[in-house]
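Notes from the 1:1 (GR / supervisor)

We went over the backlog. Supervisor wanted to see one worked example end to end before approving the batch request, so GR pasted a single chain during the call. The sequence is below; no edits were made to it. Supervisor asked that the structure be written out right there so they could see what the output format looks like.
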Amino acid sequence: MDREKERPATWVPGAVIVGAGPSGLAAAACLAARGVPATVLERSDSLAFTWRHRMYDRLALHLPKRFCELPLLPFPEEYPTYPNKDQFVTYMERYAAASGVAPRFGASVEEAAFDAPAGAWAVRLAGGEVLMTRWLVVATGENAEPRVPEFPGMRQFAGRVLHTCEYKSGEDFAGEKVLVVGCGNSGMEVSLDLCRYGAKPSMVVRNTVHVLPREMLGLSTFGIAMALLKWLPVQLVDRFILAAAHLTLGNTSQLGLRRPKTGPIELKNLTGRTPVLDVGTLDHIKSGKIKVVGAVKEVTSRGARLADGSKEEQFDAIILATGYRSNVPSWLKDGGDVFTREGTTKTPFPNGWKGRNGLYTVGFSQRGLLGASSDALSVARDIHCQWRERERL
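Structure output shown during the call:
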């Protein structure tokens, strides 16, 4: 850091947590429950900013609420099995209030680096303020910034181009032909939402994808898998899940959705690729309301040409359901023992939450809210042990 441009550093008792999404709030709540203070820094003007402002209106949790609860506070009993976006944001607000967590909003971290002589992390905020802390918890998550690919010719397209972080409702595209780039949960759900408002979506499927029913025999597919994994190897569980999915959904390859050779759970463990949980999209593909197309070769002024050599197809809009990425490499220094250059953790779940010199991570396990909860509990337990030792000195 450039010491000449910095204000005098302020020592912060306890930990500094960067990010006030579910991961950051869970870490702060678990620390508070153990009597360890924490300063939560959030660059935006609200907690759970991504959920509040970057998610489409019809979004609901893909997994039953019991798998998405954060430590110390269950979802309200009156919530449905799959809470919607607004209900989840309300839960986050209640969670912060119940835990006494009050983030510092508008606190954008420009750089965090380990100060060896001080034996602490120096966290520099926009404006020059520097906070010193023994324990730095990175909780900005895997979905901090939208991933926006640049296709050849994209700049000449005359219609609208937007990432799903800007998409709210299919109502804005009624009657239009829309190219949806991406076939993950977001791409599938946005395509379905467009249909409900009379739009005509074409969904780009470049790679193989596992599509599973959200429920089997009235039970959560994820819940069934988690129960079976307690007794059976992952490959056997994958075989069972895929056999049940075939009976329920049919052969998805016939719809242009080829399955990977590796099973869905094993693939998730190896690469972090999440299977799609179908909420009715396949029925619209079968009926022709959603068209499945291959990779985009180039974008034209009026539409796009596909890599399969087909002629140009006209579109009124392009929606990029291309996911998100970590922003950790842009501000965290000295985190190479934990993070890759892409901002993902090097050590797989459940052991990637701790680095050297008091560095911790929450929410980078590629295990969603369940993984973030596990990380938060581990981090709080570890910091509390050190906090207690320091109090004895």
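Supervisor's comment: Residues 368-392 form the longest helix (25 residues).
Batch request approved.
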